[in-house]
Amino acid sequence: MMVETLEAAAMLDDRAVAAKQSDLDMEGLIEEFRPFIHSRVSKYSLRSDTGRRDELFSVALLAFYESIRRYDIEKGHFFPFADRVVRRRIIDQLRKIYSKEEQTIPLDGCFDDQSSAQTAAVDEISVRAFNEERRREMLVEEIEQFKSELSSWGITMESLASNSPKHQQLRKEYTQAVTKVQQSPDIVQTIRLKHYFPVKAVSEITGLPQKKLERARTFIIASIIIATGDYDLLSDYVNDRRDY
Fold it and tell me: pTM of the entire structure?
């Protein structure tokens, strides 16, 4: 089942790449994914609110088109990338709509009375809560995609945690190794596209013994997946952790 899933994902990746070069292939892929786009819009709008649904569908359709144009096969599979782009664009549009409808008083303006000030304060809190919810949803999506990519290597989140360096000096060595691997496009391509960790080549550019790199394999692969994939929030988290 895993092999069939990977093969289907790879076929879709190839179709997305071809669609970037062919208007006919582009139209075919968009038409095929209309039900998917409708399902994403339905999640964020009421069936009775046809005006908003139509507006969100137009936004989502454009987002899917842009995801094809922006897709880089070296950074992972197409479908999860397109899914994130569509979801984020829908949420961005909802945030704009929400701000127009709910934020009726300028937050930095002058208030005639205490009631107006309290209303504006509630509006500001609501917008912040909406943004935080959006960030949480995006993070959940990134984690699920990350888990999917790890599983194709036979790596679980638990094994990643147990194989991540606990001591600061060792973490520093592994992080420096990841940085050097990132600077080698050939090695990154081998890891991302061929699903192979070239220990000897990594040893040559990092200066670390092959036995040590075998122990660091899980950590380095996971770090490269995050660094070279569509993982904005996870990348921020990893960068913050480098100082610990």
Answer: 0.54
